[in-house]
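INTERNAL AUDIT FORM
Audit reference: QA-55
Scope: verify that the stored structure record matches its stored sequence.
Auditor: D.O.
Record contents follow.
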Amino acid sequence: MSRRALLELQNLSTHYVSAKGTRVVRAVEDVSLRVEAGETLGIVGESGSGKSTLGRMLLRLVEPDSGSIRFDGQDVLAASGSELRRLRRDMQIIFQDPYGSLDSRMTVGQIVSEPMAIHGGESRAGEMLRAVGLDESALGRYPHEFSGGQRQRIGIARALMLRPRFIVADEPVSALDVSVGAQIVNLLRQLQKEFQLTYLFISHSLPVVRYLATRIAVMKQGVLVELGATEQIITAPRHEYTRTLLAATPELETAAS
């Protein structure tokens, strides 16, 4: 039996004019998806495929040109004022760059508590730091005092502060060393169980997505070209582009042959 859809998007599109103003680029074109409560939907594709733009549109960090987004039955694009604020408590993002995404002028305590300053409520900064494997002694320190992996843990703690139900993880390990990235991936898996989270996990790495995701959506040049259960996508891909991605990852190509 299918689980309840927490997020549904229909015919979502956004376009922009190229830097030289010579052509219209379709960043995302007519994408329809549903994300079920408690699952991890992986979005894969090469650079420029539109996967990060899609994730940001779900949170209205990028406004779509057309289409619809519903979160737990509510129209995200029609929301404003208090409704939009409530939705943004439930929908958070972990950014790709653990260096640029943290304000170097703020202490870790200020960074992690910032969502509470915006939305109100009692700060649980120490609790959230412990949840991501950091000590409360970090609260008074600054981002430059931490490694890339530690900074990403701080970013994850910030995303958890409002106790969201849905998190867009936008290539959260691509800027990290492989071993550190593996630790972050395992942390995300642990936090999903602990906080009953639903993830949209964006990555160009099929091995990482295979480890985390329930289903995989494959994007190429803004278009959703394939969607299916993780093992079906890995072992029996239907679209030529998906097979090309697999061929670029030797260990997965072997598994699919």
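Auditor finding: record pair retrieved intact. Residues 253-257 have pLDDT under 50 and may be disordered.
Action required: none
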